[in-house]
C-alpha cells in the first residue's frame, strides 16, 4: 500500500469488477455537455468576443469541480417505497446479508430542519455501504452530494471523513419525496474528495480595512479576468503549475 495512493476496496468479492468507484470526470452530467459556451447573437451566430454572452460553460471553477476526486456509484438496484406515516419497504438485487438498509427516526435529522426544507427531505435512509477507503497519512476525505446532477429523488449530505484512520464510507441518503423511489445500479451517490488535513491552529483569519495591499490583490484578480476575453483563469493555473505563457508562445 503506497502512501501516494487513494485505495478503495469492497467487502463484497468481485464488486470492483462491476461498479467500482471512478474518477469524477467519468460522471459529468449530460445536461452540462450540451450547454454552449456562448449564447447566440441576433444573427444566430455564437459570439466569441463579448463577455456578457458567455454561459455557465465558460466558468472555470465548474470545469475544475467535475475533475475533483472520485464518485461512489450505487452498487445494486435499490427499490424503496416510503409513506407519509413513515411505513416503508425496501428491496435490493443483493441478498439481505450483503446489503442492509433502515429509515432513521425523524429525530435523528429531519425534525430539526428549517420548515422550508422539510418538504424536500422526508426521510433519511441508512444503507450498509460495501466500499472502504484508505488515504495517505494526514489526508482526510470530503463527502459531497452530486449537486450538478440534480437528482429528483435523493441527495447525500456533505461531511469530512478521517479516511487515513477510519475506512468505512457511510453515505446517508436523504429522500426527497414520498412514494416509490428506484436507485439503479451505477447511479452516482456521492463524491469523495481527498484533502490534506491541517491542525486547527495552522490557519488564522483576520478582517481588515481595505488598504493598499487589498487594492493590489483586487487589481491582480481583475487583470487575470479582464485582460483576456476568455480563459484568463485557466492561463493563470497553467502558469502556476509550471507551464508559463511564454513557453506556450515560443511553441
Topology (SSEs and partners):
Layout: E1 7-10, E2 22-23, H1 30-33, H2 60-65, E3 70-73, E4 78-82, E5 88-92, E6 101-103, H3 115-118, E7 123-127, E8 131-134, E9 139-145, E10 154-155, E11 159-161, E12 173-175, E13 179-183, E14 188-196, H4 212-226, H5 232-240, H6 245-250
Antiparallel strand pairs: 1-8, 2-3, 3-14, 4-5, 4-13, 6-7, 7-12, 9-11, 9-14, 10-12
Helix pairs in contact: 4-5
Instruction: Please indicate the count of domains.
Output: 2
Structural class by secondary-structure content? alpha+beta
* General form: globular
Provide the CATH superfamily of the largest domain: Deoxyuridine triphosphatase (dUTPase)
Reported by name, the CATH topology of the largest domain is Deoxyuridine 5'-Triphosphate Nucleotidohydrolase, Chain A
Please outline the major beta sheet. 5 strands, antiparallel
What percent of residues adopt helix (DSSP H or I)?
A: 10-25%
Put simply, the count of helices is: 6
Q: Count the strands?
A: 14
CATH architecture of the largest domain: Distorted Sandwich
Q: What value does the Rg take, in angstroms? A: 23 Å
Distance between the termini: 40 Å
Structure description:
This protein has helices at 30-33, 60-65, 115-118, 212-226, 232-240, 245-250; strands at residues 7-10, 22-23, 70-73, 78-82, 88-92, 101-103, 123-127, 131-134, 139-145, 154-155, 159-161, 173-175, 179-183, 188-196. It folds into 2 domains: 7-28 and 66-196, Deoxyuridine triphosphatase (dUTPase) (Deoxyuridine 5'-Triphosphate Nucleotidohydrolase, Chain A), CATH 2.70.40.10; 205-250, no CATH class. A 5-stranded antiparallel sheet has the order 2-3-14-9-11, with no helix packed on it. Helix content is 18%, strand content 24%. The protein is an alpha+beta fold. Mean pLDDT is 88; it is low at 245-251. It has 6 helices and 14 strands. Helix 4 (212-226) crosses helix 5 (232-240).
